[in-house]
Amino acid sequence: MSRQKKEPSGCGCLNIPISVILLFLGGCYWLFTQRDNLGITKFLPNYEQLNIPFISSKPTPEASIIPTSQPSINPTKVAPNVSSTPIPKTTLSPKPSPSPEIKNQKKQVAIKSKPVSQTPWEKKEIRGIYLSRYNITNNASEKAIREKVRYYKSKGFNTIIHGVWGNACTMYNSKVMQQTLGFKSCPNLFRDKWLDWLIDEAHKQEMEVHAYFEKGIKIDKNSPIFDLAIEKKWIVPGVDKTYAGIEHYVLDVEIPEVANFFKDILVEFVQKYPKIDAVQWDDYLGYHAELPGKVNRTDKLTKFIQQMIAAMKQANPSVSFDICHHNPYWAKRYFAADYQQWNVDRIFIQAYNESGFNEEVNYARKVDGIAISDRQFHRVEELIKNKEIQSILVFPIAGKPQDTADKLNKLIQEKNLKPG
């Protein structure tokens, strides 16, 4: 029997020359190293494509996102880049709002970066005009109120001091009035939102609104509470004749019921209008020295007002409590008003009379400003040029504030104190 031919076993690799194997392996290595140039990587699955951040010439998406747990960075606090190598621009994820501290710092920087006013008038901290509680509230519409605010802005004022109280009643609806006296406001026509509109428009115009508590603790016979005050014996004996031809009666704040009424009114007001910038009281917050009995009421008046201010500050700490009064000597001597002990925020000196005007200016230099009437515009230039007078308030005694504002604006233009 002939021998059968034996079939080779295995893959037969042993029969391939070694030189061919080496040539094949070398070719594979070359193809692998040139895979990007030859476009081979596009045939590989995505998850097999390597992403090595420190080798890649382009930032990966992951590298361009700041983790949400990382604290935000204030760009104004970052040290200047001293490297000459340009930094690749990356897309940052939205960062959290800055903290209140950063906001305050930015606000301060913004204020400092504003152009310094070039005129003496514009440099006054407060350029205010008084508006009686009847100037705007006579059922004025929202449009009319906003237009008036813009008018005073155009005449160079940055503050409106508007009456909200007088003759022991409010020019807004008050729950305290209703509960204490049986009616909610003065008998005057006004829109419920009039003061909200006034404050809103003023703030849009970068102006302030100061609530003026006219007549303070005094009333006359036209007050809606006059008969009630007489009945309840809320009035200090005698007639207050501070101003010739006007008879006033002083509500006695030494009576707890009266003192609480005023404190409640003030607290309610700053809570009802939390965006009001300040409240201002004047020389009607005091007693006339010639009232019968020659009683020294200074200490008790001081204690009452300190308590009233403390209650207001607790209700709304952001509101400034201001006083516009006679100079400290006259205020204490003739009105029992030792306001330097009241813990007020700002003091303005009333200088409505020519008698002793220069002396009043000397007092005004030491406090927050001066208040003049429209009868003293011949004094305007010297007051505006006086760098020690921080603020000027204007009281329209003639009762026509728009005319007063226009007259003052023309005057300071003529004196080249403010450009037209």
Give an overview of the whole structure.
It is a single chain. The protein has a domain at 124-414: Alpha-Beta Barrel (TIM Barrel), CATH 3.20.20. The longest helix has 18 residues, at 298-315. It is an alpha/beta fold. The chain is globular. It has helices at residues 18-33, 35-38, 100-113, 142-154, 175-181, 194-204, 226-231, 256-272, 298-315, 328-335, 357-366, 380-385, 401-414, and strands spanning 127-131, 159-166, 169-170, 208-213, 218-219, 249-250, 278-282, 320-325, 346-350, 369-373, 392-395. It has 13 helices and 11 strands. Strands 1-2-4-7-8-9-10-11 form an 8-stranded parallel barrel. The model is unreliable at 1-14 and 35-114 (pLDDT under 50). The N and C termini lie far apart (133 Å). Helix 5 runs antiparallel to helix 8 and helix 8 runs parallel beside helix 9 (298-315).
Instruction: State the shape.
Output: globular
Number of strands: 11
**Segments where pLDDT lies below 50 for 5+ residues?**
1-14, 35-114
Mean pLDDT: 79
How much helix, percentage-wise, in residues?
25-40%
What is the CATH third-level topology name of the domain at 124-414?
Answer: TIM Barrel
* Beta-strand share of residues: 5-15%
Produce the secondary structure layout.
Blueprint: H1 18-33, H2 35-38, H3 100-113, E1 127-131, H4 142-154, E2 159-166, E3 169-170, H5 175-181, H6 194-204, E4 208-213, E5 218-219, H7 226-231, E6 249-250, H8 256-272, E7 278-282, H9 298-315, E8 320-325, H10 328-335, E9 346-350, H11 357-366, E10 369-373, H12 380-385, E11 392-395, H13 401-414
Parallel strand pairs: 1-2, 1-11, 2-4, 4-7, 7-8, 8-9, 9-10, 10-11
Antiparallel strand pairs: 2-3, 5-6
Helix pairs in contact: 4-6, 5-8, 8-9
